[in-house]
Write a structure and sequence with these properties.
Layout (H helix, E strand, L loop, with lengths): L16 H9 L7 H12 L4 H11 L3 H10 L11 E6 L2 H5 L2 H12 L5 E2 L5 E6 L11 E3 L2 E3 L6 H7 L9
Parallel strand pairs: 1-3
Antiparallel strand pairs: 1-4, 2-3, 4-5
Bound molecules: FE2/S2 (inorganic) cluster (FES).
Length: 169
């Protein structure tokens, strides 16, 4: 068998073939930037720098303009998702019942801004529109599981429930 050298030292090469296909599909279509970015994010999980540069080149838009669009719309992500995805509902019912405080508590406990991923890539914290369980407001989903009727003190238990983190702040 051939020698297997350490691969960790080798920079990960991003396969942009799917992004190329998406761009081919939208070639010459006016106003296609948003759907292109949506599809690329769907494929890759986020909009990595290499993909943004490719879109910039192919659509003759500057990379900084694309980043501007991506940061304007909360649906876009410029960094990879964490192992665990926390979605804090900020729909009307949840907002009225203190969703803000819940989001702040997650942010504080995980030391991460809303819309970002923790440095150790364990958690991504997002705010989302109504998740359709308003009777349980305020709610949060963790990896798709709903946690309802929350108060800020519930947050620590939810994080601990992942079994991965013993953060306490
Ligand atoms: S507003 Fe949060 S579930 Fe509807």
């Amino acid at each position: 068998m051939g020698k297997r050298k350490k691969q960790s030292a080798i920079k990960e090469i991003v396969d942009l073939s799917k992004a190329e296909e998406i761009l081919d599909h939208y070639e010459g279509v006016r106003g296609a930037l948003i759907p292109v970015l949506q599809k690329i994010q769907y494929e890759y999980g986020y909009l990595q720098e290499e993909a943004i540069n490719l879109v910039a080149e192919r659509m003759s838009i500057s990379a900084s303009e694309i980043v501007g669009v991506a940061t304007f719309y909360s649906q876009f992500r410029l960094e990879p998702r964490g192992v665990h995805m926390i979605k804090v509902c900020c729909g009307t019912a949840c907002h009225v019942k203190g969703a803000n405080k819940i989001a702040k508590e997650f942010s504080k406990k995980l030391d991460v801004a809303v819309g970002s991923t923790t440095e150790d890539s364990m958690f991504t914290l997002e705010e989302v529109a109504c998740l359709g369980a308003c009777s349980l407001a305020p709610i949060v989903t963790l990896d798709g599981d709903v946690h309802g009727n929350l108060v800020p003190d519930s947050v620590g238990n939810i994080i601990q429930g992942t079994g991965k983190h013993g953060r306490s702040k």
